[in-house]
């Protein structure tokens, strides 16, 4: 570890665990009882951890994952319903979701369970994804009455195509790991117990690349993908949207119930 920042242990908190394995730093969302939803505290902790990893010369690659049973359920809509506009202003001012894609080092997403809405946006900000067989994906932004603001409309179509992306966003349907791999959303599906090991293998391989070359490569991919203008447009349009905070909690419960029903149906097929 260099002397440029705090140790990995110091960065760990109740809501975000941080652990180094050689040159790879593993950040684990740690709110399992809330399906790792993005509370204000987790947003702040993740932002700080990403900044620290980016500045630490000893960290060559990152793995993002979640404490079982979920990767990340997205925004904490229970907290959002309680706080109203103040909750969303927090993410406009300092957004951990967009920060994931800005890290100059390789970021591998190890999707261990549900990656929904804002959690899907975090996954899309990673350089690539490895998924557990238990992973499921969904975009339920509009079903709960909010618009994406973390790059979903800019990134998802580039991975799976316009029609498939619009289908996910407009229907809110749950996509299982096998279908996610067929669509190109994830690069590999592995047994749940071997997910972190496989992600670490890939991150360690990426960490072997000289840092200057890796930063240049990530910059190339970012420029060629053309995500920037689309992301700026998405953020601006999301800020103009007026959210019905009064009905947010009711819509959250409805979406949660619907997601559970879909996951149950997928498991029975």
Low-pLDDT residue spans:
1-7
The oligomeric state is single chain
Strand arrangement in the largest pleated sheet: 1-2-3-5-7-10
Helix content: 40-55%
Number of helices: 13
The structure class reads alpha/beta
H and E string? HEEHEEHHHEEHEEHHEHEHHHH
Proportion of residues in β-strands: 15-25%
Q: Span between N and C termini?
A: 48 Å
* Average pLDDT: 89
What is the gyration radius calculated from CA atoms?
17 Å
Looking at the structure, what is the overall shape? globular
Largest sheet: 6 strands, mixed
Number of strands: 10
Topology overview:
Blueprint: H1 8-11, E1 16-21, E2 24-29, H2 40-55, E3 61-66, E4 70-72, H3 77-83, H4 85-93, H5 96-102, E5 107-111, E6 114-116, H6 118-125, E7 128-132, E8 136-138, H7 152-160, H8 162-171, E9 175-176, H9 177-183, E10 188-190, H10 195-207, H11 211-225, H12 227-240, H13 248-267
Parallel strand pairs: 2-3, 3-5, 4-6, 5-7, 6-8, 7-10
Antiparallel strand pairs: 1-2, 8-9
Helix pairs in contact: 2-5, 3-4, 5-6, 7-8, 7-12
